[in-house]
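Subject: design request, 174 residues
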């Protein structure tokens, strides 16, 4: 039975685990906000952060070294706590939420590319053109507004208010 006890006994003080998990979550959240939206891909920044940190934290409990399942559980609970707190704060206080969660950034206004946003997101004209083509738009002049969304994808409102094509799905019938 001593082996089973070592699996569940805390090997690190719980306060240290909570402080490490909190500091890591908050530091990574700030870093991901600074990096920009386009790095997020199809998920929101907090979604990516949550998945990565929970996976890493849960892995601690799987290692038989100096960590236990309980250590990993405390760390996962800490990360989930901060995720819920930041979501609740963003919901309850929208002004503060704009600091925590990214907002859509206008890439195109009235057919003109916003160079400031392109620089901020480190996007080239060619990358924007490629994204427009995925939506069936050949020329930025056809676009009334285009936004880089918080999840890193680009949404488009055409000047003719027609529905732009969505990104093409792969043909799985071949």
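Subject: RE: design request

Done. Sequence follows.
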């Amino acid at each position: 039975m001593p082996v089973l006890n070592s699996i569940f006994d805390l090997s690190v003080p719980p306060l240290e685990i909570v402080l490490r998990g909190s500091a890591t979550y908050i530091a990574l959240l700030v870093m991901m906000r600074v990096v920009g939206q386009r790095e997020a891909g199809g998920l929101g920044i907090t979604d990516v952060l949550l998945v990565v940190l929970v996976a890493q934290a849960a892995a601690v409990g799987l290692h038989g070294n100096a960590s236990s399942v309980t250590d990993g559980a405390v760390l996962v609970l800490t990360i989930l706590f901060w995720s819920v707190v930041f979501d609740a704060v963003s919901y309850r206080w929208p002004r503060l939420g704009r600091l925590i969660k990214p907002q859509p950034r206008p890439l195109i206004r009235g057919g003109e590319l916003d160079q400031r946003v392109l620089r901020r997101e480190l996007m080239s004209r060619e990358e924007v053109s490629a994204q427009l083509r995925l939506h069936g738009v050949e020329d930025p002049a056809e676009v009334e507004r285009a936004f880089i969304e918080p999840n890193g994808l680009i949404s488009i409102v055409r000047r003719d208010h027609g529905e732009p094509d969505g990104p093409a799905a792969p043909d799985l019938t071949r």
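The chain has two domains: 2-100, 105-158.
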